[in-house]
């Protein structure tokens, strides 16, 4: 797929291995972005590696981001004039009870401050996340097939949702042959 951006993630968990893997991945094509997690498994920031790879002209997709501080660290490490992606795991923030919208709004603003830097909404959980990402101006949203399958229901009114739900209840009751009152 030469005309679309593609991202491939490194497997290593140390700077030396990750740098070597990044060079191999980057060589796959001009449209390839190398996914680098914002930290190692021991919590060490990868910002120094991000800076080093960016200075070498490697297009990066910094991933596993959950905080505005991590967004700033990634964007500050990018060499001016390079193309990069900042992937915030908005869906996982929501899973932990944190509203992802404030983080994503700030992410979009920070990314726009450095030319060539794109914001990405990752870990999409529901169809409305697409609407939210669009409203705040997020550049990219990754959407799993399970969420894409719900697109035909977009635009359905709340009343139609209610009718569809009680119709499903009635069908399930009939199919199961359940009855509360004796016949």
Task: Describe what this molecule looks like in 3D.
With 183 residues, the chain is of the alpha/beta class. It has eight helices and six strands. The chain has a six-stranded parallel sheet. It is elongated, with a radius of gyration of 21 Å. The model has no long low-confidence stretch (mean pLDDT 97).
Name of the level-1 CATH class: Alpha Beta
Tally of helical runs:
8
Largest sheet: 6 strands, parallel
Average pLDDT for all residues: 97
Would you tell me the structural class of the helices and strands? alpha/beta
Distance N terminus to C terminus?
A: 63 Å
| Structural domain tally | 1
CATH fold-level label:
TIM Barrel
**Order of strands across the widest beta sheet?**
1-2-3-4-5-6
User: What is the 3D shape?
Assistant: elongated
Q: What's the count of strands?
A: 6
Which stretches are low in confidence, meaning pLDDT under 50 for 5 or more residues running? none
Could you state the order of secondary-structure elements as H and E? Answer: EHEHEHEHHEHEHH
What percent of the residues sit in helical stretches (DSSP H or I)? 40-55%
Radius of gyration: 21 Å
Instruction: Bin the strand percentage.
Output: 15-25%
CATH superfamily name?
Aldolase class I
Which architecture per CATH?
A: Alpha-Beta Barrel
């Amino acid at each position: 797929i030469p005309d679309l951006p593609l991202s491939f993630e490194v497997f290593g968990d140390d700077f030396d291995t990750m740098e070597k893997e990044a060079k191999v991945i980057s060589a796959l094509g001009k449209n390839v972005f190398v996914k680098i997690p914002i930290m190692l498994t021991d919590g060490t920031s990868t910002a120094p590696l991000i800076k080093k790879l960016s200075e070498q002209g490697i297009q990066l997709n910094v991933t596993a981001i959950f905080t505005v501080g991590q967004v700033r660290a990634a964007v500050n490490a990018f060499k001016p004039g390079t193309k990069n992606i900042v992937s915030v795991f908005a869906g996982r923030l929501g899973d932990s009870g944190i509203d992802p919208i404030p983080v994503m709004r700030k992410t979009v603003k920070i990314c726009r401050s450095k030319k060539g830097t794109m914001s990405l909404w990752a870990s999409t959980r529901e169809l409305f996340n697409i609407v939210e990402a669009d409203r705040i101006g997020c550049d990219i949203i990754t959407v799993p097939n399970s969420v894409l399958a719900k697109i035909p229901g977009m635009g359905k009114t709340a009343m139609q949702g209610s009718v569809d739900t009680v119709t499903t209840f009635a069908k399930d009751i009939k199919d199961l042959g359940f009855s509360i009152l004796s016949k």
